[in-house]
Amino acid sequence: MPLYITSSGKKLHSKSEWRVDFFNKFAEFYDFTRFFLTNTKITVDNIRRFLPERKVGLMVDVGGGSGIISREFRGNARKLVVLDPSERMIRRARSRGLSAVRAFAEETGLKNKSVDAIIMIDSFHHFRDHEKALLEMSRILKDNGVIVVEEIRPDSFPGRFLFSLEWALGCGSRFFAPDELQGLFDDSGFKSETVKVGFRYYLRAGKWRK
Asked: Based on the number of CB atoms within 10 Å of its own CB, is 199 exposed (0-12), middle (13-18) or buried (19 or more)?
């Protein structure tokens, strides 16, 4: 089994362990970098376009990090939960008064059909197993629930820069073009649509009606 060595000399046995360790160390600077990478108002406004107008019961931000953007959606749900595999990110989210749980997208620990809305803001490309993550989203999402994803377009200049940066850092990220991501969702049993906004794009998905 390959070993990944951290800057402190700690040995980790998988890429996912290394990635979590990286974000634990990066947690203190995460909010600072988000300020430069994301216009929070634009992100929030665009995601809200795809969310129900009424306040939903449970909303989950998968890979929500420190909760710096998650907190903007407290008015959209009676309960908002941040999920992230990094313990330090979870602590920062809790310091903002948010409910936060340490969990991977592939294994959330949530009950079947318990979630009304799922948001993923620049997090999908970090998931360990995208197909497994979508199976998990399908399991926890209610039949009339909605998923909204924000991702960066890999063919844009910022997208190429971010890909190169995360590749150099060894993050193991996989960026999807809009049609690729929509195809992945559709193949996983969702009905989806994408909208391009500058160098970012948004995907809205729901379950197929039976």
From this structure: middle
Q: Alpha carbon 105 to chain centroid distance?
A: 8
The three-state secondary structure class of 80 is strand
Structural tokens at position 8 = 């402190």
Alpha helices, DSSP H, located in the chain: 15-37, 40-50, 87-95, 130-140, 157-169, 178-187
Which residue carries 């931000």 as its tokens?
A: 61
Q: Average pLDDT by consecutive 10-residue portion of the chain (210 residues)?
A: 34 45 55 63 93 96 93 97 92 95 96 98 91 97 97 81 64 84 96 92 82
122 phi and psi angles, rounded to 5 deg: 55, 35
* Segments making up each domain of the chain, as ranges: 14-207
Can you give the pTM of this predicted structure? 0.83
Tokens of 23: 């974000």
Tokens of 106: 């592939």
- Write phi, then psi, for 64 (nearest 5 degrees): -75, 0
Residues 6+ apart with CB under 8 A from 80: 58, 59, 60, 61, 70, 73, 74, 98, 99
Q: What is the CATH number of domain 14-207?
A: 3.40.50.150
With contact defined as beta carbons under 8 Å apart, do 105 and 63 qualify? yes
137's tokens? 């989203």
Can you read off the two tokens belonging to residue 200?
């970012």
DSSP per-residue letters across 117-143: EEEEES-GGG-S-HHHHHHHHHHHEEE
List CB contacts of 52: < 8 A, sequence separation 6 or more.
116, 117, 146
